[in-house]
Design a protein that fits this description.
Oligomer: single chain
Distance between the termini: 54 Å
Number of domains: 2
Number of helices: 16
CATH topology of the largest domain: Dihydrodipicolinate Reductase, domain 2
Bound molecules: nicotinamide-adenine-dinucleotide
Low-confidence stretches: none
Number of strands: 25
Length: about 475
């Protein structure tokens, strides 16, 4: 069993943290007395069984003013910070951990106050893309052997980058097994898989679009009440990203940029931002074995996957897939989001994260790679509530997928402590999926004949916006839900 003898600080004891802690200690031997948890809410009762074993808990809030002081009180050189709170500025954390040689992992790149001065910010300044550019500036000055910080390593962002790589390998292997690929093409595919040249592999296979497609079918016998937001993970986290503009990794096969889009002026320019909330941007997508309509909520993986799968030649982009989220949350969240619209996006006074009151359902989360010879291919996890509870009592399927992403990243970080700043795409997918496999329920990797035009019925032919681009089947506009 992996051992970690230095100090560990866990920030936040919410839904992800609760699920992460027991799995972390199942995989890594850490003396209880070396673990400290802080949360601004009173979690003493929840944490009692852990406090009895020696884990320390402090009811504290990390703020821009006290961040350095708080971190240095609980963790020191050689230690580790697991940040599973929300709205803690990632740059400040990364900076402090780097300067103090402390390992750092989080599940989402965030900032202190995402709503401050929002009306004066440009679409570029509001974007996650901007945060990625700021992180690049920050780390440009680091040495090559800087202390490891793994960002965005939950389920999505996180495991989804590894599902994407597995899907690419599985499509290549099936192509080689099936007839119709020349000897030269077979040799190329084998070489690209062996050398882990995922961008060239995606180009060679003809992948045009990647959806992070998720359908959460968990239901409860305690439905949402009026003025209550109910979900299966952080309500604050979801609200922040849901009301933010949709961000899309923009593929080279796309012919028409939407009229409401902004293209960034610097960096790899692999994304576009829509001047429209992610929660109000709906696309048609597919999970095993049903069509879904999901929201294009912005997420780091739209940036990192499309960036890492870009093929550059002589400083020019010659291939890149379109990448974005298509999120169909649980029924209670769909109703909660609709009420949020009615409230002009002011959060409901009561919030509830579902756990023991879930009666059945799955979180079905995977990478849907489209546009290649099999049309579509989905690789991901189909995890039931029953299986999640068997793995860790009182947890739900959604937080289980996130927690195992955090644990796998933590294990990799301990074994690779001098790798500097890493996004999930920099971690080896075989290692992460090997650790995660027992926690994912069914790990599915299957072809599907689905295309956005397959079952699409145009109800209002007279509506010019119903236009479908039949020549460019995989174009973004064909996925947009418009009826
Ligand atoms: N990558 C993924 O797949 C994924 C999935 C789900 C959640 N997340 C992210 O994980 C994080 C945690 O999610 P969750 O569902 O556990 O949320 P949660 O709201 O259940 O828990 C977060 C906890 O952090 C505490 N907290 C917040 N700010 C704090 C601060 N400044 N100081 C101390 N404590 C603070 C809160 O009191 C809360 O108890 C969020 O950032 C969320 O966006 C990522």
């Amino acid at each position: 069993m992996l051992e970690f003898k230095n100090k560990v600080l866990i920030i936040g004891y919410g839904s992800v943290s609760k699920c992460t802690l027991p799995i972390l200690l199942r995989h890594i031997k850490i003396p209880y007395k070396n673990i400290t948890i802080i949360d601004f809410a009173d979690k003493r009762k929840d944490l009692q069984p852990w406090i009895k074993r020696g884990i320390q808990y402090f009811q504290e809030r990390i703020t821009p003013i006290n961040v350095a002081r708080t971190l240095s009180r609980h963790v020191s050189s050689g230690g580790m910070v697991i940040d599973v709170a929300w709205n803690i500025d990632c740059q400040d954390m990364v900076n402090w951990c780097h300067d103090n040689q402390v390992l750092y992992v989080n599940t989402s790149v965030e900032e202190w106050d995402p709503y401050a001065n929002i009306e004066n910010k440009t679409p570029f300044e509001k974007s996650l893309y901007y945060k990625q550019m700021e992180l690049r500036k920050l780390t440009a000055k680091w040495n090559h052997d800087a202390t490891t910080a793994v960002l965005d390593h939950g389920a999505n962002p996180g495991l989804i980058s590894h599902f994407t790589k597995k899907a690419l390998v599985d499509i290549a292997e099936k192509s080689i097994r099936d007839k119709g690929v020349s000897k030269t093409a077979t040799r190329d595919l084998e070489r690209l898989v062996r050398d882990k040249k995922f961008a060239s592999l995606a180009m060679k296979l003809g992948v045009k679009v990647i959806h992070v497609s998720e359908r959460d079918t968990q239901i409860t016998n305690k439905p949402k009440r009026v003025d209550e937001f109910v979900g299966t993970w952080s309500i604050e986290g979801l609200r922040e990203e849901a009301i933010s503009p949709a961000e899309i990794g923009w593929g080279t096969h796309e012919k028409e940029v939407p009229a409401i889009a902004t293209v960034p002026h610097c960096g790899p320019k692999n994304q576009i931002f829509l001047s429209q909330m992610g929660m109000n941007t709906w696309v048609r997508s597919w999970v095993p074995y049903q069509e879904i309509v999901g929201m294009v909520i912005r997420h780091a993986e739209s940036f990192t996957i499309s960036d890492r799968l870009t093929v550059w030649r002589a400083g020019k982009v010659c291939y890149r897939p379109t990448v974005h989220y298509a999120y169909m949350p649980c029924d209670e969240t769909i109703a909660s989001l609709h009420e949020l619209r009615c409230r002009n996006y002011e959060l409901q006074p009561d919030c509830r994260i579902l756990s023991d009151e879930i009666t059945s359902g799955y979180d079905i989360l995977g990478a849907l790679l489209m546009g290649h010879r099999y049309n579509s291919w989905w690789t991901g996890s189909m995890l039931s509530i029953e299986e999640a509870r068997r793995l860790v009592p009182h947890q739900n399927a959604t937080t289980m997928q996130v927690a195992i992403g955090v644990v796998a990243a933590t294990m990799w970080m301990i074994e690779n402590p001098r790798c500097g700043l890493c996004e999930p795409d920099e971690l080896p997918h075989e290692f992460v999926l090997h650790v995660a496999r027992p926690y994912l329920g069914e790990l599915i990797s299957v072809p599907s004949e689905w295309t956005p035009l397959k079952n699409y019925q145009i109800i209002f032919k007279e509506n010019p916006y119903s236009y479908l681009d039949k020549k460019n089947v995989w174009s973004f506009q064909n996925f947009l839900f418009r009826n």
